[in-house]
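> forwarded from #structure-qc
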């Protein structure tokens, strides 16, 4: 029997999307050990993902990195088993794996997990299709671990009075809800959470070393607020620089001791002020005063462009990734490569979780199987490197041909079928001949070729060489 541990943490599902100030975000991060603050961090992550282009680019960088290349590997000694039986088992698993559409379904799972730290899903599958439905974080919680794979429960009280929402969820949820209603009426102390059938659920977590929920890039939240703040300052600065104020000074009689002895009367002042004001655009202000006015300029304030750029650099630094991935301000290619290697380690850990879940599902469907799925550590950045590594190993006799095929985009069942189609059906290995070169010529062909390089044409020889040859001929040497 599989080992199973239970988690008793609970979560309120009654949350609304609200705006958070930067000081509130800092306070929430400082107290991230509290479940209520973990829920708020997930909500903040969702808000920032919708509003911040930098945050979307950051998560997109990681979500788009895996190629989900995979191979089918034996899990037991198959050397003494009948060949037909092994071939059939390999084919069945290959068909099942192709139907699951790893790249399409797991890319969605990965992106949501990067936003929330955890993904709660439900598998819809029939003989021809496979689809993973995202289940709203607010009504779910991690409840147990089975064979190294997370399981989750759903808060049935969420549907109390909202039964119409059940039509948007799997049919199993409706059955779970009405059964829970009956059990709850008999036992008021019964938990509101009901665990989803583990054979139909999927739950994966970026930070799988703990059940605490912490969006993996929550450390950049504060920096993103800084970026937005500097952008607002830059906009305000630009708007201020587009304005102008005109000062018209009222003449005062200098040959009198009377205070406020203007050379023109107030009605005339008002008349000229209004006439000039009507002729000015909205961006130009007007003031009429008898006093001297000194203009104060803010052009030396550097909080504009420089402040935004610095805040963005701080944000990428907080995320632990290179800013060179998202702009061309730097020139260190080696630093960029090292940064990508670090990023890949985070992705590889997530691939191991997906791999465990896939193989658990395979074991549930075929308990006497001979094979399992191995997801390769191949990304869009190291694809060429891994291809060369697998190909070189294959040339030395290592059984890495499946890895080579997977790296170039062929799934196991596709490779098996394409080899049969190309070799046995179309006979392309007989009809498609490579061009002759030193790499494709046989040893006999090379032996029959004339030794040495072709002699240079007369026109290609240097003038001095031609004169020497002519002299030797005339002298009979």
């Amino acid at each position: 029997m599989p080992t199973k541990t239970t988690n008793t943490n609970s979560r309120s599902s009654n949350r609304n999307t609200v705006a958070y100030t930067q000081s509130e975000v800092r306070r929430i991060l400082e107290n991230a050990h509290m479940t209520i603050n973990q829920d708020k961090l997930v909500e903040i992550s969702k808000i920032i993902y919708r509003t911040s282009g930098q945050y979307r680019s950051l998560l997109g960088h990681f979500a788009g990195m895996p190629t989900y290349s995979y191979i089918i590997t034996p899990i037991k000694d198959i050397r003494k088993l009948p060949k037909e039986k092994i071939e059939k088992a390999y084919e069945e698993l290959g068909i099942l794996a192709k139907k699951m559409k790893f790249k399409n379904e797991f890319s969605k799972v990965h992106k949501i997990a990067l936003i929330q730290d955890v993904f709660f899903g439900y598998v819809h599958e029939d003989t021809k299709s496979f689809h993973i439905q995202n289940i709203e974080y607010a009504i779910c919680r991690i409840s147990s671990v089975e064979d190294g794979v997370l399981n989750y429960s759903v808060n049935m009280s969420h549907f109390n009075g909202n039964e119409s929402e059940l039509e948007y969820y799997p049919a199993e949820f409706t059955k779970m809800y009405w059964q829970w209603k009956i059990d709850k009426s008999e036992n008021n102390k019964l938990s509101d959470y009901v665990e989803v059938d583990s054979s139909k659920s999927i739950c994966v977590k970026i930070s799988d070393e703990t059940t605490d929920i912490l969006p993996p890039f929550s450390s950049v939240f504060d920096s993103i607020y800084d970026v937005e703040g500097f952008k607002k300052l830059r906009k305000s600065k630009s708007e201020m620089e587009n304005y102008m104020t005109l000062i018209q000074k009222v003449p005062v009689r200098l040959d009198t001791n009377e205070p406020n002895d203007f050379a023109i009367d107030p009605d005339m002042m008002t008349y000229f002020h209004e006439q000039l004001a009507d002729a000015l655009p909205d961006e130009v202000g007007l003031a009429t005063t008898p006093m001297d006015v000194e203009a104060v300029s803010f052009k030396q304030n550097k909080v504009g462009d420089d402040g935004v750029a610095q805040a963005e650099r701080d944000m990428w630094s907080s995320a632990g990734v290179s800013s060179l991935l998202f702009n061309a301000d730097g020139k260190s290619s080696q630093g960029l490569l090292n940064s990508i290697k670090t990023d890949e380690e985070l992705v590889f850990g997530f691939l191991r979780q997906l791999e465990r879940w896939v193989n658990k599902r395979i074991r549930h469907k075929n308990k006497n199987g001979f094979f399992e799925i191995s997801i390769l550590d191949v990304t869009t950045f190291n694809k060429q490197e891994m291809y060369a590594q697998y190909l070189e190993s294959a040339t030395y006799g290592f059984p890495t041909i499946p890895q080579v095929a997977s790296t170039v985009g062929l799934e196991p069942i596709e490779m098996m079928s394409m080899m049969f189609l190309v070799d046995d059906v179309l006979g392309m290995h007989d009809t498609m001949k490579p061009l002759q070169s030193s790499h494709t010529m046989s040893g006999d062909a090379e032996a029959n070729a004339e030794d040495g390089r072709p002699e240079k044409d007369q026109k290609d020889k240097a003038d001095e060489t031609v004169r020497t040859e002519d002299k030797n001929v005339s002298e009979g040497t």
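QC bot note: The first helix runs from residue 22 to 30. The two ends are 97 Å apart (CA to CA).
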